[in-house]
Amino acid sequence: MQVEFQFNDERAICDIAGHETLLAVLRDKLGAMEVKYGCGEGACGSCVVLVDGNPLASCITLCASVDGTDIMSVKAPDPPGAWALLKDRFAAHEGAQCGFCTPGLLASCFALVQRGEKLTRQEIREALSGHLCRCTGYHHIVDAVEEAMAIWPTMS
Amino acid sequence: MANDVLTPQLSVIGKGVIREDVRKKVAGEVLYSADWVMPGMLYGKLVRALYSHAKIKKLSSQDARHVPGVVRIIEAKDVPVNQFYDDPSGLGEKVAQHKVFQDDEVRYAGEPICLVIAKTPEAAEKGARAIGVEYEPLPSIHNPLDALKDDAILVHPGGNTVVQWNVHKGNTQVAIQDPNLVHISRTYRTQFVDHLYLEPESGVGWVDNDGIVTLRCATQVVEHYRNIARMLNISENRVRIICPYVGGGFGGKEDMTVEPYLAIAAWITKKPVKMVWSRQESLQARPKRHPFVMTYDLWAKPCGDVVAMKVDVTGDAGAYALLSPRVLFAAAVVATGPYHIDHVDVTSRAVYTHNVPTSAFRGFGAMQMAFGYEQIMEEMAQKLGIDSVGFRRRHFIKKGDTLATGEIQDTAVWLNETLDKVLNELGEAPVTDDGSKRIGIGIACTMQPYGRTVWFQDHASCWLNLESDGSVILRTGVPDIGGGQAASLCQIAAEILHVPLEAVRAYYGDSALTPLAGGTFATRQLYMSGNAVVKAAQELQEKIDHVLKTAWGDEGWQWDEEGMAYSPSGLRISRSAVYEAANALHYPLSVHTTFHAQSGEGYDNKEGRAVKTFPDFTFGCHGALVEVDVQTGTVKVLRYVASHDVGVAINPLSVEGQIHGGVVQGLGYALSEEVLYQDGQCVTALFSQYMAPTAEQMPDITAIILESHEGKGPFHARGIGEPAIAPVAPAIANAVANALGPSCRVRSLPITAEKIWGELSGLDGSKI
């Protein structure tokens, strides 16, 4: 079957089998290696991308189900600068160490920041509970997100 | 402050600089091992044993060969040397490790049997399912204590004891005769846990233009190329391992994972082959942390003086030795903790079972012991009716003390300092009026080695040179597993060479092109490669100074922030001018050097004594405030404080990151994580069944970094990677016990709600 969607502002038309996951199509057909395979169960969050603005685990999302959607990864064009802001704050606070969970994690953070959320540290922790990070202990991640949330309204 | 080595005013060291690798990682620009793609690439899938102990009667691959897309089945007979050997204790005892492919007697469920190579991952998977293995199941043994009995089933013909280490100090037998001594005996148990790094075991192997077997894979040790050469029976100069940024290691990528399979597949097919292990095979079959059974006997005078300690440790090695001898050695060395005790007997042993093999994991045997010694000290204080903090302080080892092994602690021991900080920050336990909740406070003080045992003759090399434009290239074989291993080395080079940090570029982790640095394990990389870079940078700077003086005269040269040399007389010389001058003088500005760690004699296991075991230790204290729900037994960590003396923090932001990460991995170990096996079969083989902590369950962590300026690393730094995890489980155990009240204590990990509820029910069932 054929699916068509926007990926990082470019049109993607892919011939796929019905069982193919969005993760497999993004990586193997579109070369989007920033989307990571971490567990294949939708449990670790490393493969999360934004589908119409909502964070989704691409490893348990059938590609057939995203026809007509707008999909973004951490490499999406970024005129408003929300990705850039998050990346900068994550780097400044060392919110990544090995960095493997980071692109997926940033997708969820992007959704939060762009919605204009202002959350407490505990609420940020709850909002990111679909992501596992094994290196940072989360503290620096929360620092980065908290700061990005505070700065974003002044940028947008 | 005693910063006697290099410059009195440090410009880059000690600054929380932003790591360039982190910038690349957050931008999604890093291609990890599984992200590599080559033309005509094939895919490999392992067939793994279903039984924990069985004879393989027959292997039939006929059906698998007919699966569309399957290219080749690789079995034991296809491997030139199908057996790995090693000397894991380093004392000259060669032991047979695992086979590449088991073709005779399966010793654990998940042991690799053969490899299916196909054009797509799906075809490889289908092919693997079509392989027929006929087994004759055999009785198996899974409890290491049972495996020690005389009539136990043997896992290997030589007996089930892999190794036994002894530490003796003083004369325990005589010392404990005093009838006035208070004696307690307690047994503590730890569980199987998984590293659960986010990046699965993965890589691509190919044979390059020159016939070199090349592996680009996730590993902590590029020196495994030597094992691969032995397996293929080819010369070591024909295998190359390239290690891109690794998506987490924690010891789990220290033993080989995909390496032999990528190599044999590329060698036989002459095509690039990719392999990514599924999370299920990783959880089921890749080595875990050793479960320990630790029995502590402690004798003290009623006044609170410890007289003697006996420790008996049994570690489950699983089916193959791997690094068990070293893990149990580290356990033996620190078994008595950071305490000065006159009479000590320690026995630690690793035992074969038909369980999954166990091996390296952050903390490496030493961290399990903290769960023992930090509880027995607490329990003794309770028994004596004295303050447990004061009891610890009375016995803390000090610089210059003789440790249990007989070696002298020759650097600063800031246990009191870290303890003070933690107690101060933790404050008093708040009072709760909620009858269903109890608050508890607990601490743990620990010591953890950094660097390898001294008889391994550890060394690390690097190559540093000035480029024609004045930039600096650092080549080092360091695998960067996420801790900023390469970035810290750039900071060190920049500091000594007086150049801006951006001027230094590290090329890392390539066994053919970067000088070998040894693996990233044992909290050794900052210590080893950091010292190598100090040595290289000092030599290079001397050369630069020499060129300056020769070409422009002895002008009392100094360096500005841009890395330009200037003289009081007003000369300004760029580094590219220095480069040109050096060329004209036939004086290359390039240094290749090796740092050799403090080395020493092998351990005297008969006497249980050593002149030196590890180069040094990192000390620290953690404290936790917890809330226990007495109706459900659940634990909530309200506050967590961690303090370590790191000698000098090269990058305080990264040091803090190591402490935060160690604490959270430790909290998972303490409260929720366990890989469960039933008769050797993994029953928690899904990622979602393994309870690693997510952000919402974790508290903010207060990390307090102290700097004694007395480490043995560069600029007197100490290692922090492993030390940060050691105190967590005992601090939590002590806090939970404090919340539960006297005579209630969970002595096995993880400290689950179920176990706590059980303790509480035993105490007073009417309250539940």
Distance between the termini of chain A: 40 Å
Task: Summarize the helix and strand pattern of chain A as letters.
Answer: EEHEEEHHHH
The greatest interface between two protein chains, and residues involved on each side, is: A-B, 53 and 59 residues
- What general outline of chain A do the C-alpha atoms trace? globular
CATH topology of the largest domain in chain A: DNA polymerase, domain 1
Nutshell version of this structure?
The complex is a heterodimer of chains A (156) and B (768). Chain A is α+β, with helices and mostly antiparallel strands and 156 residues long.
Description:
The complex is a heterodimer of chains A (156) and B (768). Chain A has 5 helices and 5 strands. Chain A is an alpha+beta fold. Chain A has 2 domains: 71 residues, Roll (Ubiquitin-like (UB roll)); 74 residues, Orthogonal Bundle (DNA polymerase, domain 1), CATH 1.10.150.120. A 5-stranded mixed β-sheet of chain A has the order 2-1-5-3-4, with helices on both faces. In chain A, helix 2 runs antiparallel to helix 5. Chain A is globular. Chain B has 18 helices and 30 strands. The N and C termini of chain B lie far apart (56 Å). In chain B, strand 28 and strand 29 form a beta hairpin. In chain B, the strands form 8 sheets. Chain B has a 7-stranded mixed β-sheet with strand order 3-7-1-14-11-12-13, sandwiched between helices. Chain B has 3 domains: 149 residues, 2-Layer Sandwich (Aldehyde Oxidoreductase, domain 4); 182 residues, Alpha-Beta Complex (Aldehyde Oxidoreductase, domain 3), CATH 3.90.1170; 327 residues, Aldehyde oxidase/xanthine dehydrogenase, molybdopterin binding domain (Aldehyde Oxidoreductase, domain 4, 2-Layer Sandwich), CATH 3.30.365.10. In chain B, helix 6 crosses helix 7, helix 9 packs parallel to helix 10 and helix 10 packs across helix 11. Chain B has 768 residues and is α+β, with helices and mostly antiparallel strands. The interface between A and B is large, with 53 and 59 residues.
